[in-house]
User: What shape does this take?
Amino acid sequence: MAGSVYKIIEIVGTSTKSWEDAAKAALETASKTLEDLRVAEVVKQDVTVENGKVINYRVRLNISFKYHTEKGL
Assistant: This one.
């Protein structure tokens, strides 16, 4: 076999504390259903503002995970 194949998807995490917590929450949630997570790339960071105050931090991540084919196909 020549090498591995990886799939890349985009996810968004949120936190009331920080961008780091938002990224961590997103990755921990994704890892519950995706196998072999490899790399997470922060694509965008933004905040939600209410009455002049930051109420949420949001992080958009591209994550890659190893693609597994079903056996017998």
Remarks:
- The first strand starts at residue 6 and ends at 15.
